[in-house]
Each structure stands twice: as C-alpha cells, then as structure tokens.
TrEMBL record:
<keyword id="KW-0808">Transferase</keyword>
<feature type="domain" description="Protein kinase">
    <location>
        <begin position="19"/>
        <end position="302"/>
    </location>
</feature>
<dbReference type="InterPro" id="IPR000719">
    <property type="entry name" value="Prot_kinase_dom"/>
</dbReference>
<dbReference type="GO" id="GO:0004674">
    <property type="term" value="F:protein serine/threonine kinase activity"/>
</dbReference>
<feature type="region of interest" description="Disordered">
    <location>
        <begin position="331"/>
        <end position="366"/>
    </location>
</feature>
<keyword id="KW-0067">ATP-binding</keyword>
<dbReference type="Pfam" id="PF00069">
    <property type="entry name" value="Pkinase"/>
</dbReference>
<dbReference type="InterPro" id="IPR011009">
    <property type="entry name" value="Kinase-like_dom_sf"/>
</dbReference>
<keyword id="KW-0812">Transmembrane</keyword>
<feature type="binding site">
    <location>
        <position position="48"/>
    </location>
    <ligand>
        <name>ATP</name>
    </ligand>
</feature>
<keyword id="KW-0472">Membrane</keyword>
<keyword id="KW-1133">Transmembrane helix</keyword>
<keyword id="KW-0547">Nucleotide-binding</keyword>
<dbReference type="InterPro" id="IPR008271">
    <property type="entry name" value="Ser/Thr_kinase_AS"/>
</dbReference>
<dbReference type="InterPro" id="IPR017441">
    <property type="entry name" value="Protein_kinase_ATP_BS"/>
</dbReference>
<protein>
    <recommendedName>
        <fullName>Protein kinase domain-containing protein</fullName>
    </recommendedName>
</protein>
<feature type="transmembrane region" description="Helical">
    <location>
        <begin position="400"/>
        <end position="421"/>
    </location>
</feature>
Length: 422
C-alpha cells in the first residue's frame, strides 16, 4: 500500500485511537483492513479504516457509522462481531471487529482446490443461518462472495465456525427505517462484486434477499467444484452477460461425486428468475441439510412384507409418478448411479427433489416426459423419496382406504410408465 493510501495510519499507532496497528491485511470496498491490538486491553482486533476519498463525503462517513450500528444489533455466531467505532485524529472513520483465526472461503479454495461435499454443505448452511438473521431484520447484504465468507480454525471439538463479513454494501428493504437514507444507492450506481451479481441487479434493479441466495449459490458451486458456474471470462461485459443469459452446467459435470438432488439445489439457487429460487435463506439451508442427511444415512432395502405394514407408506413408484424430480435423482444416466437410468426432457427450471423446504413453501413441479431405459431399483427410489424421513402415522381406521387409493395410483403410474416405455 502506497503512502497516499495510508494517510492517518502509521506503522504502529492508529492516530488518536487506542489501537496499535501490526500489519495491513487487505483492502475492501470501503476501506483498508488492519490487524491491530487495543494497547490498554491487549486484545487483538481487526480495524477497517475508511478510504480517504470516502471520508470527504458525509454519506461515506455515515454509512460506516451505521454499518457499525447494524452489526452491533445483529449479534449472531455466524456474523462477525463489532467491538468499536470512531474517527481518527486525521478524520478517518474506523470500525473495530473481532479478530478471527482462519481464512476466507477464497483462501480455502486456493489451498485445497475444492472441498468435500459434506464439508462444503456444512459451511454454506452456517453462512445461510447468519444470512437468515440479516434478512430477518430487513437487510440485504449485497456482497456475499468467497472473500466475505470466513471459516475459523477448528475449536477443541474440531468444529469450524463460519462468519459472514463486510456489511458495507447493505440495502435496507424498508425505506421507512430511520437509517435507510444513509444506505440508499444513487441511481445508476451498482453495488456488489461482478462475479456474484444476481440477474435482477443488472436488469430491473429490484433487489431483495433472494439476490443474496443467488450469490450464495455461486459460492457453493465454487466450493463443490473449484470453479465458477459460468465459462471463464475476464471482460466485465462477458461476466455480466453470463448472469443474465448463460445457463450453468450442473456441478456434477466437474465433480462426479455430487448426487443429482444436490445438483438440483445448487441450480435452483442460480435461477435467473428470483421467483424460482428458494423462498428464503432458511429454506435453502433446510434443503441442503436434508441433502447432507440423505448422503450420510444408509437406506436398507425394506422387505415387501415389511413395507406393506408401514402405516401411511407410499409405494416408491407412486411417489416418483407424482414427483418426477425424484425420479431424476435416482434414474439418471450417470455412471455414479448404475442401478437405474432414464432419459428425460429436463424441465425449464430445476426443482426441489427433497421434501418440503419450509412451512408454507408451495412447490409445483413442471410436467416431465420420461422414457425409462432400465428397470428402476426401488431401493434407490425409496432413498430419494424418504431421505431421513419417517413415514407419517395415520389412524388405523383409515388404513384400508389409504391402501386402496395407493394401489389405484400405483396401477396408474405403472401403466403410464409402460405406455411411455413402449
């Protein structure tokens, strides 16, 4: 960093503050970031100092002050904690945050190439949990990216906590809030990182919490595959065009160990139309958690007699006939699932192959035409239909009528499949 960038900051002391600077960590969208220490409390912290140019603008100073206020109110284990805010003797606003030990998702990928599927899901679920807390108070982060997602060093149990960083580009969804004016974006100004911008940020400019879910989908794609969802590009116009026009390949194209239902979840987060994405960060996290459970839970083959005695159990073919997306997850033509295969016309948008994501989340699966090329293995169909889900309990008096209806649906489903087959 040149001398012009370090006005108000010495090699040892942040002028007019109790913080002693140890080293420069990097530069964000609104300021330089330093590792520092409170000289009286001997507490290690991170200090973000506002850029000199932004210090000359009243709105720039106010945004950092309100960023500190927002973070101070959002106390959450998956959000970076704020310790202090002030102005240096040179008139530069600074924000003091907790010192984290670990590295960003970006650094993690540079060191490891890509992450194991379960580990990647675990990290993103934590990040989504923090993001849900942000959205719950009417705030959109608008700068979710690998560099702003931090995974801490393992604790005594081996657990690694994920923290969401940098709230300098947030948007308040309610213009009536007292601090909304300071966070208003000037017309024609686009906030965020180009490789993570949701399509609606580039077209309509109408942004809500689902823009953050799109960016989180890009981060998850990168963790799983070691690359972005679109063709590599360097020109800004090509990068932005991909968000609005390019259809991403399923992550399993680059990482064959990824199961089909996880492909669906990632691609759903990357939908061009925000209405087709997950309804909330909590819904996205729930779906990923269910996917991780399905991958980790063994599914023993139920005997026919045992299956018939389960109260409320649905025949797996009936489940698949009513939800074709489940069939996609177990009857794909990928070598990783040799037990069954099928050719199909993909729906216009990916659908959720798992149970309902959240209360009140309605989901309509598009009609899909199927041509089954090999017999379906009920073990895999049942595993996809019930990942970690216990069959519902029903009253004994309704059992006979339920099974009569199930048998009729089964006959219809088999007839339709045989008709399509031939």
């Amino acid at each position: 960093m040149n001398d012009g960038d370090r006005r108000g900051v010495s090699d040892t002391l942040l002028w007019g503050t109790p913080y002693r600077v140890h080293r420069w960590l990097g530069r964000g969208g609104s300021g330089d970031v330093f590792e520092a220490e409170h000289q009286h409390l001997a507490r290690s912290v991170v200090v973000k100092v506002l850029h000199p140019d932004l210090c000359r603008e009243p709105r720039g100073m106010e945004r950092m002050r309100l960023e500190a206020q927002v973070l101070a109110r959002l106390s959450h284990p998956n959000l970076v904690a704020v310790r202090d805010f002030g102005v240096t003797a040179e008139g530069r606003a600074y924000l003091v945050m907790e010192r984290l030990r670990g590295r960003t998702f970006d650094d993690e990928l540079r060191a490891r190439g890509k992450l194991p599927v379960q580990e990647a899901i675990s990290y993103v679920v934590q990040a989504l949990t923090g993001l849900a807390a942000v959205h719950a108070v009417g705030i959109v982060h608008r700068d979710v990216k690998l560099e702003n997602l931090f995974v801490c060093e393992p604790d005594a149990t081996g657990h690694r906590v994920v923290k969401l960083l940098d709230f300098g580009a947030i948007k308040l969804l309610s213009p009536s809030l007292p601090i909304a004016a300071a966070f208003a974006t000037a017309q024609g100004v686009l906030l965020g990182s180009p490789r993570y911008l949701a399509p609606e940020q580039l077209t309509t400019g109408i942004v809500d919490a689902r823009a953050d879910l799109y960016a989180m989908g890009i981060a998850l794609y990168a963790l799983l595959t070691g690359r972005g969802p679109f063709a590599p590009a360097q020109r800004l116009t090509d990068i932005l065009h991909a968000h609005t026009s390019e259809v991403p390949a399923p992550p399993s194209r680059w990482a064959p160990e990824i199961p089909p239902y996880l492909d669906h979840l990632v691609l759903q987060a990357l939908e061009k139309d925000p209405a087709h994405r997950f309804s909330s960060a909590a819904a996205f996290a729930t779906a990923l958690t269910q996917a991780a459970t399905a991958m980790a839970t063994p599914h023993p083959v139920p005997a026919a007699s045992r299956a018939s005695s389960l109260p409320g159990a649905l025949n797996p073919l009936v489940v698949c006939a009513s939800r074709p997306s489940l069939l996609a997850g177990v009857a794909s033509d990928r070598s990783s699932s040799p037990a069954a295969s099928a050719s199909y016309e993909s729906p216009s948008r990916p659908v959720d192959p798992l149970p309902s994501l959240a209360p009140g989340h309605a989901h309509q699966a598009p009609v899909t035409r199927w041509a089954v090329t090999e017999p379906l293995d009920p073990r895999h169909v049942l595993a996809a239909a019930w990942p970690g889900l216990q069959p519902p309990q029903r009253r004994h008096g309704r059992r006979l009528g339920f099974w009569a209806m199930g048998s009729a649906l089964l006959g219809f489903a088999v007839a339709m499949l045989l008709h399509t087959w031939h």
